[in-house]
Specification:
alpha+beta; Beta-Lactamase; 10-stranded mixed sheet; 5-stranded antiparallel sheet; 30 helices; disordered N terminus; PAS sensor diguanylate cyclase and phosphodiesterase; kinase activity; transferase; kinase; cyclic-guanylate-specific phosphodiesterase activity
Length: 853
Amino acid sequence: MVLFRDSISMMIESWQNRQKNKSGIGPNRAPLAIRGIPDVREFLIRRYRSDQQHQDERSVLLRIDDEGTVMQAAASCEAVLGYESGELEGQPVQRILASRQDDPFATANRHLIEDGQRVLLTFRHKEGFFFTAELSLRQASRDSDQAATATITPRDISGMDPGLIKSAEGLAEFGLWELDIASNEMFWSDGMYQQLALRTSTRITPEQALFYCQTGQARVRALFRRCVRTGHPFHLDLNVLTSRQTLKRMTLTGRPIKQGGRIQRLAGTLINQTATMEQEQALERATQVLAATGEATPDLVAAVDTRLTLLHCNYPYASQFASVFGRTPTPGDNLLELLGDFPNERRLIERLWQRAFERGGFVVEMPLAQQNRDLPVHEFHYQRITNSHGETLGAVQVGRNIDNQIQHAGSSEYHTRHDPVTGLMNRREFIARLLRTLEQKTHRESCDSLLYLDLDDFERFNDIAGSGTCDRYLRELAGNLGVRVRQRDALARLSGDTFALLIENCPEAKARDIAQSILELIRNFVFDWQGQKLSTTASGGLLIMEGDKPRDPEELLSQAADLCHTAKTSGRNRIHAANALTEAMDDTVTAQRLEQIRQALAQGELVLEYQTLKPVASATWGDHIEILCRIPGGDDNAPVLHPDEFLPVAERFDLAKKLDRQVIRQTLHWLNGHRLLEPRLKYCGFNLSLASVLDDSFADFMEAELARSPFAPECFCVEIREAHATQYPDDVSVLCDALHRVGCRVALDGAGASVESYRLAARLPVDIIKLDRQMMDHLEDDPVQQVMVEALHRIAEAAGKDTVATFIENDDALRKARTLGIHFGQGFRLSRPQPLDALTPAAVDLTTGRIGG
């Protein structure tokens, strides 16, 4: 507001100087004009004719700045464009272009031009016809290419453009006036006439102008006299009725202008404040309506701004708040300050209001305070308040007492479905909800997840503070969890310190984010008790229920509990996730396979096989293999387990990371014993599980293992699934950079399975793109698949990456992959998996004996 008044003061002085044309009174301050050097590009435009054998020699040079303004045109401009050079200088370049698509600064054209290429654009001749010409970049000059030479120079405000003042008066809705005391003659700017809805040529006296003031005419005369006599400036709010009978709120200001130590003139402004008046009236009406509505209902009504300052609260809310917290709230109080002595309640209430600001509206059932179990339960409705631009101004809360409804309308039923301590649904109701979800799942395609949570070391709270405090802790923690979870999801307390959350219709990546956010909430939740701060962490098992899974809710809960137990034994304060095991795999089969995996890891005797990758587009020397893992049968002569049989069990019991390391360790040990392979081995790939991808120490493990190997690090490649790269792009990028520092290569396996494939192929720092099996199915007879594969291959090739076509099962698919230019192929048509011991160097028979083999 001060800056605005200063600007008006400067305009008054400028207007006075022009009005009186007096050079003796200079301005008190001068604005600053900043001059800068724009980016300038020099373009060559050459006429183009497709029917000529030789290019047209007519051309012209144009210098265009980064705002699209022609800075300079060569003398040959008239021969090409029909304009003289002076006619184009200072004009926008669109004047000579046929359409927006021909703009040299458009994204598509700019990239080609900056790469040194010529582009064909359509230009408009001065005579009105269109022609095609080649445009190329001759020279570019940028601010960053030279030292900064911008200067700041003062400008005399007395020379300000009258049009600028007139424009400012119209936009800011004010006018300037001046009164010559000696002649009693008043001068008005155009803005004064506009504010009173008068024509500029209207002749009017100061006495007649006073008649437009509905109130305060005597006050205006008195202020003018006092300003002349004492020199005190004045400021007065008036109700003005314009010539069109429109009522406006105006602010009249004035101040003396002295010359030679005496007051010679008065000058000031008339500012339209009608919009502010209307806003104040609207706010007053809204406050009155809100107050009347609040007093007409027994519900608890409160409204706050984004800083949790009370805008309004009715008597029931203030009375309930005072009885619970001992302080009576009034509009203008801040809720966080009122709850300074109740830190647990303050955090919960703050979280509820913040949720309203972020989500718009929601409903929650709870007492006004969690620490008092005797308070009635209210159904609180939260709704965000926004302005016409969609900006959040605050939120309103309406709480309806539902205590009687709970007590009388089936209280026994309510208690059989809800946990008595936290108010969350109990195990019985959660099982029923999970069963309904499983039954509905057969009619829809979506991904559901089950999160099983167990508080770490919670039993120590009972030893420190007793069971009553533990119940209060659980009750307030449940309230905070209820705010964090989505409304469609089901949160339950199963028993003691265990909770469960059903996450419905949610992609796996999003479900993992929700699980991590809940874990973070529990870790940051602090409960104050007698000066002590009670806090703990939680371990969780996230069961991804997608595809073929058990239909028994108890079985799903059991699997999620196993994952939670694995998270606890792995170090606590973490989430362990895995897909649900199929119905065909019962507990006996799971236990048997788990024992096989543990025995193989303990003895270090995994069954390793390899499958060859063969060049498709051109011949490449050397061996290119991918290592495959199998689990041996063990002492019980059980069947050998393939990945689809042992990986779900390994992921469920947190053994996938150990399997990855054992495969790499065992492969390198075998290669160390076959050093004749060292010249031929060009690629040795290892599949990586998600647990290893998210393991910060994996790159260090690879570096330590490769340091003991005679084979070059660039021979080895780690293959990361595209699904994992999509879920955790930042973690995968960090891992790729770490492996590159070690010397390994990285491959993106399963590319093409999602819409993110093309972005990942272009941006992710990997060396090899392995196409997904879905991309290869029916490649030979599906033209759409061919276009998709070709596009992915071209993107990878442009980014300097090799491509591998997987699952090539027949000659037709092989021919099509070769036609599309794919670099390598893999599949049963080219080679089948073989035992690693079958990988031998080439044998050469000489007179002195055989070498290799």
